[in-house]
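Methods — Computational structure assignment.
A single polypeptide chain was analysed. Its primary sequence is given first, followed by the predicted tertiary structure written as structure tokens.
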Amino acid sequence: MDDHRALENLVYTYASLVDAGDFDGVGELFAEGAFVGSGGAFRGAEVAQMLRDTVIVYEDGTPRTKHVTTNLALEVDGGTASGRAYFTVLQAAPGLPLQTIAAGRYADRFTRTAGGWRFTERRAAVDLAGDVGHHLRPRP
């Protein structure tokens, strides 16, 4: 598999794991890197715990979301790479219609390891927010 395809798969795996409610899997994606968002910077198991603390999970074990990643642009330079993309988060919670709840952008850095490409850092910024009351727990 070429580098661009492997990096695309990594980026899309993040979305799939979040939507499946597999927060430990998301944490594993950042075992050698950091996730940086409005709540701060987190690494590995901290990412998984941050998601458990902030994201509402429903009876089916998922947050009832679909993270759609678009406009993916990747630049590979030997054993490192960078990328940027847009994301749109859709949600259909029980009793609510399908709706867009957030849109924003990712700025990513990657490192090639013996096991393949890994996140070095993902910076997530929400540019547009809808009703996230059925997705995120209120901050204390």
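Note: The longest strand covers residues 99-113.
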